[in-house]
Design a protein that fits this description.
- 26% of the residues are buried.
- The protein has one domain: Orthogonal Bundle (MetI-like fold).
- It is 75% helix and 1% strand.
- It has helices spanning 3-36, 55-62, 64-97, 102-110, 117-128, 134-141, 153-181, 185-193, 198-226, 230-235, 247-257, 261-290; strands at residues 39-40, 50-51.
- With 291 residues, it is mostly helical.
Length: 291
């Protein structure tokens, strides 16, 4: 065996574990879910399994609960993504301007993201508790009325967004901070010599140079927003009146509580199509603005 052949064999050997994992845990489930989406597959009646074509997709199109869950998901994305980007950008700018203590603040900011969603949900259930929760305790001591954080429709979704911001702010802030630190200082020094002020530096230099990274965080956080599940499931179970039950939770309940795997798979592919369209639109819009 020649040296080149040995190198090729070694490469295939090291690649094999990842390739096997990719096929077993990503590619195969995708193929199975696509097949399930065009079948009637009810686990309570396995003898009734049959091919139904686009029937599951048509049923979802007429399903009021599907559209209600999709509206809840849109509501979360509309509140979460702009709030996260603006807050994370502000935190990154603040960290970038710090002369001392940056590493400590950065570690504290990233700390909530190290918790899994179950721990975060339990913690914030206590914060939002109507009787002995931390937030209502503070409101009462300020002479204000207790807020129905999770029991009223007008409060429930914003409360979930606040929790999600606290949980995911650190990662996005650190990505933006890393991008800020890559901007050459000479550009700012030249602009200052030309008489540029703080707002001009932000609008004419910082934001334009951050656009590729902003494109990345906007698209990735939009995709994550459409896939929200743990936060509303743990805090509200989709209530009150299903106002916070997102599409992923509805898919989960349909597939694993009602045992309709085919219908759940069809809704999953519809969600994939919606997310793909939004991601492509955002990518095209932001990409044009950077060129």
């Amino acid at each position: 065996m020649t040296y080149t052949q040995r190198r090729s064999a070694a490469g295939l050997f090291f690649l094999a574990p990842y390739a096997f994992s990719f096929i077993a845990f990503i590619l195969l489930p995708i193929i199975v879910s696509l097949c399930l989406s065009v079948m009637q597959f009810d686990m309570t009646a396995p003898h009734s399994v049959k091919f139904v074509g686009a029937h599951n997709y048509q049923e979802a199109w007429k399903d009021d609960y599907f559209w209600q869950a999709l509206r809840a998901t849109f509501g979360y994305v509309v509140l979460m993504v702009p709030g996260l980007i603006v807050t994370a950008l502000g935190m990154a700018l603040g960290l970038h301007g710090m002369a001392r203590g940056r590493n400590t603040v950065r570690a504290l900011l990233f700390l909530p993201g190290m918790l899994n969603v179950a721990v975060t949900g339990i913690l914030w259930q206590w914060f939002y508790n109507g009787e002995f929760g931390l937030f209502n305790f503070v409101l009462k001591h300020l002479g204000l009325n207790a807020a129905p954080w999770l029991s009223e429709k007008s409060y429930a979704m914003p409360s979930i967004v606040i929790m999600s911001l606290w949980w995911s702010l650190g990662g996005t802030s650190i990505v933006l901070l890393a991008a800020l630190q890559q901007i050459p200082k000479q550009i700012f020094e030249a602009a200052l010599l030309d008489g540029a002020t703080g707002p001009a530096l932000l609008n004419r230099i910082t934001l334009p140079l951050l656009r590729p990274v902003l494109l990345f965080v906007v698209v990735t956080n939009t995709i994550a927003g459409f896939q929200v599940f743990g936060q509303p499931f743990l805090l509200t179970r989709g209530g009150p009146e299903l106002s916070t039950r997102g599409l992923v939770q509805y898919i989960y309940e349909t597939a694993f509580n009602n045992y309709r795997l085919g219908y759940g798979a069809a809704m999953s592919w519809m969600l994939f199509a919606i997310v793909a369209v939004f991601a492509l639109v955002q990518y095209s819009f932001l990409r044009r603005s950077t060129s």
